[in-house]
Amino acid sequence: MKKTTKIQIFISILSLLPLILVLAVYSKLPDKVPMQWSSNGNVRYDDKYNLFIIAIMTIGFAVMFPLLPKIDPKKKNYNKFSSSYQGFQVFIMLFMLFVTAFCIIEAFRPHTLNVPMLACILLGILFAFIGNMMPRFRSNWFCGIRTPWTMSSDENWTKTHRLGGRMFFTAGIIILFYALVPSEYFYSEVIGVVLIIACIVPSVYSYLLYKKQK
């Protein structure tokens, strides 16, 4: 219990950092700040108050994640993968902090960072991390590959998430290496194709496994 409390306190602190960062520099920011980067380098600028949306979203995630297990009918299963669930929360908080930092740095010094590449690297690490912890997931209504067939069978859930873990880990590594290799192809297209495959294959597998078991 003490360990869980300390981790949740740490997550709460992380969730506040984007807001603190925005407040610290808000008065010095230009009226328009970069908020969206296309894979070909085009940048969309929006009013700087939009940075508060990112900061508030981060706090919202920090509030939402601990509440989900409490309202899940299978909440007891969260104890079996609590460390992975908390690790995911930490990663999301850091991801949102980096996104906020990217926007602020580019607002003060445009073209300092290769934001599409950095975002691609972060996403690759995120999916590899999810893939690594996915086999530890236990049946629940909020995390994992929730098909009618995985939700109806613990065996189906376990086998599907073993495959899903390998698929997501591989997708993360592909995205990560692609981000480090200069290419004319769009990051978004590669990420989209890789993730579609990583999601569809385990879902189809769960159905075929259901048919075989039946």
Description:
- This protein has 214 residues and is mainly alpha-helical.
- The chain has two domains: 1-109, no CATH class; 114-214, no CATH class.
- Helices cover 70% and strands 5% of the residues.
- It has seven helices and two strands; from the N terminus they run H-E-E-H-H-H-H-H-H.
- It has helices at 2-25, 50-71, 82-108, 115-133, 148-151, 154-180, 187-213, and strands spanning 32-37, 43-47.
- The protein has a two-stranded antiparallel ribbon.
- Helix 1 packs antiparallel against helix 2 (50-71).
- The longest helix is centred in the middle third of the chain and has 27 residues, at 82-108.
Helix/strand structural class: mainly alpha
The domain tally reads 2
Largest sheet: 2 strands, antiparallel
Uncertain segments: none
Number of helices: 7
What is the overall pLDDT average?
90
What share of residues are in beta strands? 5-15%
Measured between the Cα atoms of the first and last residue, the distance is 41 Å
Q: SSE order in H/E notation?
A: HEEHHHHHH
Shape assignment = globular
Number of strands: 2
Helix content: over 70%
CA-based gyration radius: 19 Å
Kindly report the spatial arrangement of strands forming the biggest sheet. 1-2
